[in-house]
Fold this sequence. Notes:
Strand 7 and strand 8 form a beta hairpin. The protein is globular. It contains 20 helices and 38 strands. The longest helix is centred in the middle third of the chain and has 22 residues, at 480-501. 27% of the residues lie in helices and 22% in strands. It has 2 domains: 32-309, Distorted Sandwich (Beta-galactosidase, Chain A, domain 5), CATH 2.70.98.10; 314-685, Glycosyl hydrolase family fold, CATH 1.20.1610.10. By secondary structure, it is an alpha+beta fold. The two termini are 49 Å apart. A 9-stranded antiparallel sheet has the order 7-8-9-10-18-14-13-12-16. Strands 19-33-34-38-35-36 form a 6-stranded mixed sheet. A 4-stranded antiparallel sheet has the order 5-11-17-15, with no helix packed on it. Residues 27-280 form the Glycosyl hydrolase family 92 N-terminal domain. Residues 287-748 form the Glycosyl hydrolase family domain. It comes from Sphingomonas japonica. Keywords: Signal. This is Alpha-1,2-mannosidase.
Amino acid sequence: MQYFRTFAALLLLIAAAPLAAQGYEEVDPFIGTGGEGHTFPGAVAPFGMVQLSPDTDTGCTIRDCYDHAAGYRHDDPTIQGFSHTHFSGSGHSDLGDFLVMPVAGDMVPIEPGDAKIPGSGYRSRFSHEREEARPGYYAVTLDDAGVRAEMTAGTRVGVHRYRFPKGKAAHLVLDLRSSLYNYAGKILWSSVRRWPNGTITGSRETRGWAAGRKLHFAMRFSQPLAGHAFVSTEQDVAYKGFQGPGRGSDALAERSGQALVARFDFGRLDRPLEVRVAISSVDEAGAIANLDSEPGDFDTVHAATRKAWEEALGRVEITAPAPMRKNLYTALYHSLIAPSVAGDADGRWRGPDNAVHVSKDFAYRSTFSLWDTFRAQHPLLTLVQPEAVSTDIVRSLIASQQVSPDGILPIWAFQGRETWTMIGYHAVPVIADAYLKGVRGFDADAALDAMVASATYAPYGGLGDYMKLGYVAIDREPEAASKTVEYAYDDWTIARMAQAMGRTDVAATFAKRASNWRNSFDPETGFVRARKSDGAFRTPFDPTAINYGSDYTEGNAWQYSWFVPHDQASLFALMGGDAAAVAKLDAMFDYDMSGIDYSHAEDIAGLIGQYIHGNEPSHHVAYLYNYAGAPWRTQERLTQIVASQYQPTPDGLSGNDDLGQMSAWLFFTGLGFYPVAPGSLEYVIGRPFVESAELALPDGKRFAIVAEGLSEANAYIGGVTLNGKPLDRAFIRHSEIMAGGELRFTMQATPDKQWATGPEARPYSMDAVAK
């Protein structure tokens, strides 16, 4: 079975062969490492289990943990060490597992020390001038230690390479206390062992964002150990020697506790020290097997990972000004980090039930930031990584649901553990969008059953009231207005997939539920609002108010009143028609923010009036002018957003990248279209920001985008052709892209107020199609 799986994957890779080995050099992993981007610069393979990256600070308060959610912050002056797990752009901190730091000299501190006091611990100052990062590679000079540190990573293995100063003793500190969610009681238990063959293994269980998370590691060195110590800092007295192995263990030494630090001594070295590390959520044997599954030294692993990145990035060939090329290829890179592999090389994985399961015919994936990524990142993967969607991602979602104690699909999960963060059941549109686009390789009936189970689990997020009342009741469930409209969209995708499968009973049920968004729309104010269980809208009402646990999720009425991606025409009709919808959209973007302060709310960044590009509920809004017959207004707004929200600099992302969603928005927008309603099989046309682009598709097909006359001055569409024929509609179908061909834009300096304005030219809307 493993052979056939590998052979099938190889065929898919050949079918979607890269256009050229380009794109790799354009990526800048430092984009988003400052400001609110929360990305990390370290080494990771495409969808890799290991994200080996520097941590600049882990001793954090609640606010500091948010700022350091990726471990690294570009404006920090010191590096505490290099840990093996990181989120890319999340709005919440966790991970930072198994921190390693080189130390040179005779004294080996086991505390990180104070960043403001050089030499107070193993932490080291560094300079960006002696730091570099590329896909799958990171390097920095640690100034205090005098050590040149390099990192690379395979799928399940991370490899360090350290060049120590000549004549100084080389040491490594392994700090099992360190994490990126460093509140009291975070480390429940940890252990470390040394084995006769020189392998070091260990484990820890943490209580952080995901409770009871278990992770194990295996570590090997390229040079023999000259000495070591396993230290518990829970004790007030100095630790002398190492604790003997536990009963029944073959380990030469081992220790366990809540606050462990290991020191490894190598003497004076005449060559670089390489450290190979693998992790496993299953057990230490799994970590060892993962270590053995990717043999080779630093250069071997680095070369394999570089080749994988060149292939993945090379599926799109972009011609654009240098800053835009860098932005777009980095966006594609960030979109291919998650959902990361979470299963071992032997097929074992730990599920949401905290039990170990085995899947021999796919690699189990986790790190699903679904409230963010269902919008654009997952639809992007159906274009540029369809084999990953069919073979691993959808199967992983189904497998997780089948062993979930609650019987539902993941909400926000990582390493197989559920966090219950954010709202909706947005694994549903991910699966439906993939199925409707023709992605197969999974059990569709099992998938639909899992989707229905998630959508009918009454204890979750007010679903009981939603099914009875047609809306979530705010007096019984917080953020009810947001939940109602998001559930309605998810329900529509269930109906679409069920209809395509011939399961008409399911389709009818969820098509009816897809209209529940109407129950939260208030025609008096023109906003989506929260209702109480007695049917009344909650008062007082302020459409600009943003408070956690209130009527809306990370937003307010201005952002959430537009979230009807599957039925925009009906929404606009309730708002008073096209002109009223356009006026309200303009009012959102042009809102006078004088006197309004959102500093109390994390994730509220990238404001253009009440449009908040740094958070996802606004991401589709600029494209909505198309639904009201004013596509030139979409073109204007996209020009405004791209110019103000994205730069090829460390602080170049206006908000959290959220596992690739901010990046995927830019990537689609750069090509000239965006998936406003995943599941509709349409992409809404905006305007291109590239001179040309070409997608490598399965079966050797190519789809090209060309923008004639594109310049800063020529920001409007003057005409569009598809395969040489005029395209007079504001959308392109997924099937038209997958068939191959050319989408050609003619750009001009003034808006064309006639192109794609009629009702028949507008993108999909549920009730418009029904009529």
